[in-house]
Amino acid sequence: MYGSHGRRHRAVAAVAVLACLQVLALSLPAWADTLAGPHGPHGPVSPPEGAGAVIRGLVLVTTSIAAGVAMLQPVAGPPGRHGRTLAHAAAVTAAAGQFTVIVAGGAWLVTMALATATLALPTMLSRPRPAAATAVLITIVLAAYGLFTAARDGTTGVSGAVRGGAAPDTGFQAAVTPGAAVHGADLGLGLGLAVVHGLAATVWAGAAVYLATAAPADRRALARRLTPPVLVSAAALAVSGALWAFLDGVRLDRGVWSAFGALLIVKTVAAAGCVVALSVFLGGAGNRRGAARSPAILLACAVVAGTALTVVPRPAPPPVPGVPLLGDVTVAGHRLPVLVAPARPGWNLVHIGADQASAGTDPARLTPATAQPGTRYTWARIWLPAGRSPLWIGLRGAVAELPVDTGDGGAGGPDLRGPDGPECAHVALGRAVAGVGAPLRSCPADRLTAADAADLRAMVRFVAARGVRVIGLAGDPSPRGTRAAAEVRAEAGRQRLTVVAPGAARTPVIVVSGWAVADRVVRDVGTGRVAALGTYLAPWLLSAPLLGPSAGQLIALRFHPGDPRGLSYAAALNLRFPGEPATAAGYHGWSGEPGSQAPPRLYAASTLSVPGHAQPGGASGGHDGHGGHGGGRWLPGGTITPITGPLAPGPLPRHP
Amino acid sequence: MSGLRFPVSPRRRTAVVLAALSVLATGIVASAPLEAAADGGVVKVGSEVVGSDGKTYSATNHLTERAFAPTPGNRPRKWLLTWAGDAEPGTGGSPDPDFLAVVDATPGTPGYGRVVNTLTLDSAFGNEPHHMQYMWHKGDRVYAGGLLSDTTYVFDIARLPQVRLAGVTLPADTPCGSAPDAYTVLKDGTAYATYMGGPDVTGPCRYTDGQIRDGNGYAGSPGEVVRLDRSGKVLAEAPAATSTSEDPELCVNIPVLPKATCANPHGIAVREDLNRLITSDFAEVRNMVTPPAPPPANVGRKTVRIFDIADRGRPRLLSVSRLPDGPRQETNPIAEEPHMVMETAVTNQPHHRGAFASTMSGGAVFYTPDITDPNPKWREVFDDSTAFKALFPTDTPQAGTDGGSWLMPSPDDRYLFHVVLSGGLSSPAANKEAGMVYVLDIQPLLAAGRGTRCSIDDMREVFAGGRERDCPRLVSALPIKDLTSGGPHWAAMDTFGLDRQAYRETQQVSRLAVSNYFVSSTYVDGDHRVCLIDVGPHGELSLDQTFRDENQGTPCVGFDRTRWPHGDHGGARPHGVLFAVADADIR
After folding, report:
1. DSSP characters for A64-95?
2. Which of A268, B195, B241, B389 could disulfide-link B263, Cβ–Cβ 3.0 to 4.6 Å?
3. Which of B364, B345, B342 is nearest to B489 (CA)?
4. Is 0.80 surpassed by the pTM of this model?
5. For residues B532 and B511, what is the distance between their CA atoms, to the nearest angstrom?
6. For residue A602, which residues of chain B lie inside 8 Å, CB to CB?
7. Mutate which of A137, A140, A537, A608 to test chain B, going by most B C-beta atoms within 10 A?
8. Predicted confidence band at A237 (pLDDT cuts at 50, 70, 90)?
C-alpha cells in the first residue's frame, strides 16, 4: 500500500520534480555542444540558450502529461485525485511555458491557442471523449509546430526527415515556402513521423501518470486496460523512433556515444524495460509493490528521455566512404568548417575555414594549411589511408579530430594537388552544401564545356565589335586552359584580331586560366604591371577574390548572381562555410547544372568602399572578414551587374 | 475531495471548452498562412514597365488601411518618400525586395509617422537604393537610383500614397557611366543624373553628342551626366571628363588612364535661368580600397564641374575648378578640407549666382559667388569644426573624415542646411558618434556678391567661424547620435505650406527629414532611422518628438523592423528621402 494522501502527494511531486530535473540534466551536455547544432553559426562557440531548451522540454513533458491523461481516459476511466492534480499542474505549467514562447517571439496565435486548449484540458475531463479529442488535436498541433520551429532553428533532428531530400533549399521552412525545391513526400514523412511519435509518447505519458497515481488495489486492473494502447504506442514509438534516428544520421557505429545517442539508448532501454515490467506485473510475478511501480518509473524515464531528445543536437552524420566530406570541428574555442576532397585514399585537399590552421593524420605532426591564389582561408594537402581514419585539425596549438572515410581504396579520385585543386574542391563543396553525396570523379579544369567555349567566342566577338584589333590572352596548361586558349585564338582569327601575351600594350585581356593565374593577372592589372583595356574573365572565374582587385573585370555568365537562385546558393554556402566565396564551380555543384541554355550576358564587377573607415578583416578588396558583413553575397561590398543583353546572337552595344 | 476543480458551472465550463476549441481551431487554421495574416487589410496594386532589354520590371504597392484613413478636418496629407534597401536576405537566402516607403508626414494626424505603403521592386534585388532628386515639385516624377544595380527607377507619384513604376533605366542604357548617384529635375519634367562611375567596359566610350572619352571601367572613371525623360529613357549621355588630361597626381585612376581624370560626379544642382549645371566630384569609388596597399589619398576628388546647359540635350563642360586647401594640418591626408566633394548646391534667387560645395572627408563648406564665371574661384567659408565646437565644447569631434553629406540652401536663400555623418575618425571617443545637422545664415555671404571676402584661413576660424563680416554664421546645430559605423547622411526639405485645404510650395523650410544611413557595403552604415526636424522661423532646429515609430513609440521612424506592409521581411536601410504631395492636394 502507498499509505496516506501525504505520501501520495509526495510521490506525485517527486515524479514531477524528477522529470524536470531529468530534462535539465539530460539537456546539459547539449548546451556545451551548442544548441545551434551542426548547421549553426561558426566562429567562436556561443553561450548556450539553456533557458529556451529547458522551457521547450518542460512544455513537451507537461503537455504530454495533461494530454496523455485526457487521451487515455476513455480507456482507463477517470483519473484519481492525484492524477487530476498532476494533470492540472502539468496543464498550468505547459500553458505558462507556451506563454513564455510567445514572449520570446514564437508564433503567438498558434501558441496562444495551444496554451488555452491545454489549460482547458483538465476541466474537460468530465467529458471523456471531447477531452480525448482535444488532447489528440493538441498533440498533433504541438508535434507539427515543434517540427516547424525546430527545423527553422536547426536544433533537432526531426527536420532531417524533411531535409534529407530538401536540397538545395534546406530545412522545413523551405519545404513550406512556395517554390522551394522540396518533394511533398519529404514533407509528409517529416510530419507523419512527428505526429505518430508525439501521439505515442503522449499515450505513454498518460499511462505513466495513471499507473503512478492509481490506488494499489486498482493498479493491476488498470494496467490490463492500458496494455493495448501502451503496446500499440510502443510499436509506433519503436518504428517511428528508429526511422527518425536513422534519418538523423544515428548509426550503430557512430552517434551512439553522443548526448543524442545516449538519450536514445536511455529511451529505448526504458521503453523496452517498461514493456517487460508491465508483462511481469500483469503476470503476477515478482514483488508486488516493486513490480507495480517499475513500469511507471520506466515509462516516465522513456518519456523524459524522448523529450530531452528534442532539445539536443543530433550527431553529425558519419562520413560517407569515398564522398567529399564537409564537416565541422571545434578547436581552440572556434567552430571551423572543414572540407576534405576527394576523400579517397591518397592525396587529399583539406580546406579549413580559418587562417593559420593546420591538418594531418598525426596530431603531433600537422601540416600547415596555406593560402592559395584566388581563394580564401587555407588549404593543406594531406595523404589519407584507405578506409576510416582520424583527420586532425590544428589551430593555435589546439587540435580536434574529424573522422574521415576514404572508402575501400578502389578507383581514386581526381588529383587536387595542382593549382586547379581548390576550384575542383568547390564543386564538392557546392554539392555538400546542397546535401548531395556524390563522389568527386572529375574537375572543371579537365575539359572545356561547350557552353564555356561558346561564351568565350561570344566574348571575343564582343571585343572585336568595339573596334579593338589586338587582344591579350592569359591561359594555363590545364586541359581546359589549353582548349580555351585555342578557342579564343580561333575566334580571334575569324575576327581578324591579333593575340598577344598581356604586357605593356593596352589591350583587352582575356583570361582563360584557372584561379591561380587569374589571380595574378587581375592583381597585375590593378597595380599597373599589366596594361589592360579591361579584364575579360572566363565564366569559371566568377569568384570574389578574382573580382575584388580593380582591373575592370567583365565576365560572361549565363545566370545572374543576384537572382533568387544565385543568392540562395550564396546564402546556403555562407551558412555552412561562413566567409567562403561563392564561385561558379560551387554554384554548378550546388545546382547540379553544369551549364545553362540561357544565352550569356556580360557582367561588370566592382567593389565599393570609403577610404579611412576600418573594415573587418582588414583591407581586402572590400571584402569583409570571415562571414560577417556581406556574407551570403557573391561579391561582398560590391556588385556584379549585367551590362549587356545576350551576347549572341543578340545585338551588341554600340561602340565608339 | 477529488482534486482541483474550477468553481464554474457545467454550462460555463462547456462555454470555456468551446471557446478553447475555437481558439485552437483558429490557431491551426492560422498557423500556415501567418504571412497572410500580416497582410490583413493591405491592398496590393501593381504596375510594370518593359525595360530596354525586353524584360518586364514590376513593382507592387502595399497600401495599409491607414493610407485611406480620413484626417481631422479632411486635411490633405503630406508624404515622406523613403527609398530603402533590404538589409537582410529572407529565408534560405532568398532576396527580399527593395522598396519605396510612403510615410505619413502630416503633423497632427493619427497616422503621423506610419508607413502606409511600401512599393516593392519585384524584379530586381540588391539595388542599394541611394538618392532621389533633392526637391519635388508639383507634377514631377520621382527619379530613384540603385547604386549597385546601376539602375534608375522612375516613379509616378501623382496619386500618392499610391505609386506607379513609370520607367527603368538599365545599365546597358548608360554604357558610358555607372553607379548612379543623384538627380535634379528640370521644369520640363526631365532630369539630369550623375553617374559617378566609369563606362561599363574599359576603353573608349562614345557619348550621345559624339564625344569619346577613355575610361577604366565599371565604377571607375570617368563618370558622366545623363539626361532622362519622364519614363527613364536616356536622352543624353554627356561626358564629365575633359578631352585633355587633368593633373595625374591629383586625379589618381586605377588602373591608370592615358588621360587622367577626376570626373566622378556625385552631387548635382541646376540653375535653368543661368543655363548652368554644376556637379561635384566625389571619388573613384571602386578604388577606395585596393589591396594590398592602402588607397592613395587622391582617389578622393577635390573638384567641381560646371556645364553649360543652354542646349538641355547637350550639356557642355565649361570648367573644372578645384577646392582650396584649408588651415587644418591633418596627419591623414585624406582628411584635409577639400577631399571628396560629396555635395554641391546652388542659390535659388534670381539675383544670386553663387554655389556651395561640401566635402565628405574634408569636413568643410566652400563657396563660389558666380557659377557663370568661366573660371570660378572657391573659398572655404565654414569648417564643420565650428558646429562641433558649439555642440561639444569639450571632447570636440574632429571635422576631418566626418562624413559631411547633404547640403541645401533654403529656397529663399536665407539659410544653408548641412548634414554631417559623425565625428571624424580621430575624434575623442566620448563624442565620436556625434552626427549632426546644422544651419548657417548665408545672407551676408550672398549679399556680398562677387566681392565676398570670407575665407577660413587659420585654426581660430576653424573652430569659431570666419572673421570676415560676410562669413556664414552658425544659427543652430542639432546632434543626431548614431552608435553604428554611420549616421545621418541624407535629408530633404519640407517647403509645403497649407493654404485652404491644399498645399503650395513656399520659400521657407518648415522641416527637414534626415535619414541615418550611408552605404553598408562601404562599412559606413547607420542605425536606419528617419527623423523629422522642425525648423523655426529663425532657422532654429529641434527634433520633432511627435514623429514617432509606430512600433517602438520613440521619436524617429525606424527601418530596423520586422513587419512591413509587404510582409515580415525584416530590417531595411533608408537612404533617399523626399517630401511630396498628391497632385490633387497641391496647387
Report:
1. HHHHHHHHHHHHH-S--HHHHHHHHHHHHHHH
2. B241
3. B342
4. no
5. 7
6. 201
7. A608
8. confident
